[in-house]
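Hi R.,

Here's the input for the zinc ion complex you asked about:
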Amino acid sequence: MIQKLVDGVHAFQSKYFATHRALFRRLAERGQHPETLFITCSDSRVDPNLITSTKPGELFIVRNIGNVVPHVTVPGGTAAAIEYAVEVLGVTNVIVCGHTHCGAINAILNPETMDRLPFVKRWLAQGERVRAIVAERYGQLDEGARMLAAVEENVLVQLENLRAFPNVADRLDRGVLSMAGWVFEIGSGDVFEFDPQTGQFASIAPSSIPPPAVPCE
Ligand SMILES: [Zn+2]
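And here is the predicted structure with zinc ion in place:
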């Protein structure tokens, strides 16, 4: 596995880096000026730069289990990254991106699965609110639909938590910062964004994904 990564570094250097030297030189000399703070899950199937077709220097990325924004009173790496992105980098967009088949959301809905994982359990105790919302509003749904609802509600709870940061709230009020809630659907590659007008998540570009060349079975 390590050799695979080393080979990957070599391939990066001889291909991507070789054709983007000016970009990396500019990033090294002038620093980073990303416009977007992208908060997403640690899940290996979610690749922020890949799914947004962005290059190095464009996304300031925070990843943790379950794309959680801890309550504003809880210090930690995520809060520090939000503060830095907003105060120092001056990002103008924040995206919280959840994803389908999220192990963290499954654990929030089924806390007994975390019995042997004390750190995960403590981290995801922050998902109590999501569990309560799902129990209250989506109890009648089947498991798959309930999972998706939980993924979506989790994104909305994190947007609310973001708004509790005074520097975020101030910039939202002044219209110099915008926030969006996304869900990445792993199996289809589609991205759904929360629309506050309808209260629903809707596909960002439903017609942009070409159908498979060979019909799926
Ligand atoms: Zn996840």
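One thing worth noting: The radius of gyration is 19 Å.

Cheers,
M.
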